[in-house]
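Q: Structure tokens for this one, please.
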Amino acid sequence: MTDVAVRPAEQLPEPVDQVGDAPDRTARVFAAVMGVLVAAAVIVRFTADQALWLDEAQSVAIARLPLGGSGVTMWDGLLQDGSPPLYYLVLHGWITVFGEGNLAVRSLSALINIAAAWPLFLLGRRVVNARAAKVTVVLYLTSPFALYFGTETRMYSLIVLLTALGGLALERVLRAPSVRSVIGLALAAGCLALTHYWCLYLLLTVAVWLIGLLTLRPWYRARRSRQLGAASPTGPVSSPTGPASAPRPGAGAADRGPVARPGGTRSHRSSGRYLTPQRRGPVYGLLGIVGGAIVFSPWLPNFFDQLAHTGTPWGEPASYAAISHAYGQWAGGPTTLGRLLLFLITGLAAAGIAGRSRGSRFVLIDLRGLEPGRTMFFLATGTLVVAVTAGKLVGNAWADRYTATAFVPFLLVIGLGATVIGERRVFHGVIAVAALVGLLAGTSDVQRERSQAGEAAQVLERLARPGDVMLVCPDQLGPGLARTVPPWMKVYVVPTYAPPDRVDWVDYEERNESADGQAIARRALNEAGPQHTVFLAGSGSYRTYEELCTVVRATLQNARPHADEVMKQGLPAKVYENYSLLRFQAS
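A: Here is the predicted structure, written as tokens:
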């Protein structure tokens, strides 16, 4: 009998029900439910056939251009757009085979999006553990963020695929450094940079982490040795209840190895193997990043030209608050269901970064963080910090879709966090609810109209006739309309009076500020003549067009007072790219 009082919080129960126990009926039902949800998520990726919005239509317009010849080529289109070429080359080949219909071009993103699940699983299994890898894949496939970009004709699904492949290459370099593994990492890094320039922020963050492994880890190990030596000057102290090599309660995952649970099962945390690489591993990793720069180097002249003349004139640089906003977007987005999912994902992220399971009802949080969740969180958040900082320095805007570059380490964190839950029923319930809510929220987002181009085309088919003229202000509405309006319609964008299929971003702000809105309106009126109608598709909410579209509209209104609104501007909650359609009839 002892007279030492023990606080209840220290009397942790033995685990009654472990997530890793042998499968039973409940586990089979859970697996069946997950299978149905994943299958539904795959199908949803092939259901978006609504009109393309600006970025999608612009991608198709560039990708369908010829690769060579005397006319405008795809390379000319890329210089005007400000994008690297890899995704457009892939889309060019896809369009050649399958055409450029809405569902056809979006199916490429869907297939790439689904294909990313396999390397993501392999990465999770190698970096974390097999169970976390499975959870990561389920939460990825049912993620509203991933679902949406699996139905958009843009490069973001390709970014996720290449990031997962790059992670596998990096893990290989750290675990078994060789010339072959360095070449694999260089190809992955170069392809990422050739897909989207924000991937450069991810590569920079990875390089900083590798430098940290080279410089800080030896210092950390030396300090740890000094601490252990001071605590036990005669060597390891034998314990009456276990061997001298038993892990200390406060040790990090990299020091502990696999965690032994009271019930005899292994903790669902990684052993941290990839965080204790061979000494030359970080050096080889940095060589791989440098090799990626060599792969990217043929595009450098175009990159510098785009950097000087394109950029992101449609938006302002973000504040550091955008980082927390990005986590909200990754979790579920701004909808009611998305906020519910955010509640669950926040808990899983916290458990993945710093949680350790103790029994079926307890999760202990180490405020220092635990590996590998701590590193995954650093890579995701560090990329966002670099992106915001770079945006402030060079004036580039922030867009939530760009954060796909840091999405993979975030997925690994929440996959790891789910496996920290020791009680099987709670584990099953959390994953099932997260997958179901994610699928419902994502499906709703996928089905939302992205542009009013289809509605505008129906109005023009009914009210317009050959010889009528339509102005599009701003020109960013043009690419979507170019795919839907009647082919006999004369359509021009403001201020260039050019065809509407592509936006030329070169020196965009300067061009719009110096444009003469009255002259553009008068040109349209002269072309229409007294017999034909002038239409104006416009919105006043676009940066650099604050006054120009108003001047164009006022000039048309003065010349033809008998004007009416034939299509109302849609609500942002119902249609992403929204604008009104005005008709200026001849007297």
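A few notes: The domain at 451-584 is CATH 3.40.50 (Rossmann fold). The chain has a mean pLDDT of 87.
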